[in-house]
Design brief:
The chain is 0% helix and 35% strand. The protein is globular. The protein is built from no helices and 9 strands. The strands form 3 sheets. Strands 1-9-8 form a 3-stranded antiparallel beta sheet, with no helix packed on it. By secondary structure, it is an all-beta fold. It has a single domain, classed as Rieske [2Fe-2S] iron-sulphur domain (Rieske Iron-sulfur Protein, 3-layer Sandwich). The structure holds FE2/S2 (inorganic) cluster. FE2/S2 (inorganic) cluster (FES) binds next to loops.
Amino acid sequence: MPRKPKDRLLKIAPVGELKNHQSKKFMIQRADRQTEAFLIQKDGRHYAYLNLCRHWTVGLDFDGNEFFSEDGEWLVCKNHGAVYNPVTGGCEGGPCGGAPLYRVPLVEKEGFIYADVENVDWVES
Ligand code: FES
């Protein structure tokens, strides 16, 4: 069934829920499956990505909802240590081989953060 226009935005969290370097996981419904994603806050700004490493197609966090390095500067895959830039999603080191995380565009509206699910950079694997 085609999505209605109002389904484009998926409410994730109220603005202010996440503190610096905190994260919140959420599920995005696709036509044939659900895909996990995560919202992060860094230095007062929010970013979101699919929870899929670019080394293997598995979650970065071992289900622990911990994505940041100890110093809060990087997103780190707990599997083999791939390192991503939290602002751009770019691969900065480790076995991700230069491939960035899949970005989930965000919209901030009326005090809430929404995922723009129609414009997610979907992985097709
Ligand atoms: S699965 Fe992420 S570094 Fe290997």
